[in-house]
Amino acid sequence: MRRIRVVSLKNQRVIADKCLVADRFFVRLRGLIGKSSLSRTEGMWFPRCSSVHTWWMSMPIDVVFLRRSRSGRPGTWEVTSVHPSVRPWRLLPLGDWNSSDVLELAAGAAEEGSLLPGDEVECIG
After folding, report:
1. Is the pTM for the entire model greater than 0.85?
2. How many domains are there within the chain?
3. Average pLDDT of span 101-105
4. Radius of gyration of the chain (CA)
């Protein structure tokens, strides 16, 4: 399974250095279901995805919606919205129709990395 490193371009903070890319059907289907915790440096990136659910999850997560950066720089993404500490078993899906990808992080990681809408992140790997 492919891993990437996600770094904030605003402050050069590492958002996730062990970020799995969910680019295969079964990886996307399972997502973080079954994980009881994430370390501060773990995450999961869902390409071509603009909504997520937290059914069958056992922990809150930060959900960061992204789209390709308008700067045109390869591997650079713009944050369109940040949803901190989304609880497990949320009834309705969470979405952002301005986004193209989703980054799921440990609860509190987005705030620790100071991620805000309009910020840019770089994916390395």
Report:
1. yes
2. 1
3. 97
4. 13
20 touches 44 (CB < 8 A): yes
- Give the integer Cα–Cα distance in Å for 14 and 92: 30
Each residue of 19-29: b (16+ CB within 10 Å) or e?
bbbbeeeeeee
The residue segments making up the domain with residue 29 are 3-124
For 25, the token pair is 């059907």
The total number of residues written for the chain in this structure: 125
Residue 1 has pLDDT above 90, yes or no: no
Contacting residues for 100 by C-beta, under 8 A, at least 6 apart: 47, 48, 49, 50, 66, 67, 68
For residue 4, list its beta bridge partners: 19
Largest CA distance in the chain: 37
Tell me the per-residue pLDDT of 2-12, one tens digit each, with 9 for 90 and over: 999 999 999 99
Rounded distance, CA 76 to CA 25, Å? 24
DSSP assigned state of 38: -
What's the CATH number where 96 sits?
Answer: 2.60.120.1140
